[in-house]
Specification:
Length: 56
């Protein structure tokens, strides 16, 4: 997780916030970031796989 993501989450909080809710919010951001990284890593594989399927 990058610092701007944490700062954004802090800025979205109200004055009275629940720490558990904040941590859950950060964990959701982390899962989204992780999924996007995995998708970017797999993209070349998927393109090659689809191209191979068209050749058959």
């Amino acid at each position: 997780m990058q610092k701007p993501t944490i700062i954004q989450a802090l800025n979205e909080l109200s004055k009275n916030f629940n720490l558990d809710g904040f941590l859950e919010h950060l964990m959701i951001f982390e899962k989204i970031d992780e999924g996007m990284r995995e998708a970017k890593e797999r993209l070349p594989f998927l393109i090659i796989h689809d191209a191979a399927r068209e050749i058959k």
